[in-house]
Hints:
It contains 3 helices and 6 strands, in the order H-E-E-E-E-H-H-E-E. The strands form 2 sheets. It has a 4-stranded antiparallel beta sheet, covered by helices on one side. Strands 1-4 form a two-stranded antiparallel sheet. The chain is an alpha+beta fold. The longest helix is centred in the middle third of the chain and has 16 residues, at about 70-85. It has helices spanning about 5, 55-65, 70-85; strands at about 10-15, 25-30, 40-45, 50, 90-100, 105-110. It has one domain (about 5-115): GTP cyclohydrolase I, C-terminal domain/NADPH-dependent 7-cyano-7-deazaguanine reductase, N-terminal domain (GTP Cyclohydrolase I, domain 2, 2-Layer Sandwich), CATH 3.30.1130.
Amino acid sequence: MDLRERRSLLSSKPNPDQRLDYVCSLGAPIQASIATSTLQFRVRYVPDRVILTPESLDTYLDKVGNIQWTSLEDLAVAILNDINDELIARWIEVSLTVEKDNQFHDVVLEERQPEWEDRGILSRLPTSRPDS
């Protein structure tokens, strides 16, 4: 699956109020070829013009899990870039966690628009671990 085909699985709809800063959170387990156990995925973002449709994210995650990735970090970077290409969010965070034998591997990536200021909203968010 190429980049364009992968990104075409994601869809969005208009933000109901672009004047407000608010956080959207979506999460799901991913069966991925990179891990022997289920990955926990979460995306949190402050939308700008559009919001992600949860249904498209489910389809996207099913397909992206079947791709051969070199590392958890590689998968997380691809997901962040794909979702942010669709949303162009004010702020976005992608988290992937895999747990096995009482150990975990966590990857948390964040990106924001250069002109967007925190305004305190991010300081009130709970921890970024998807399973907490």
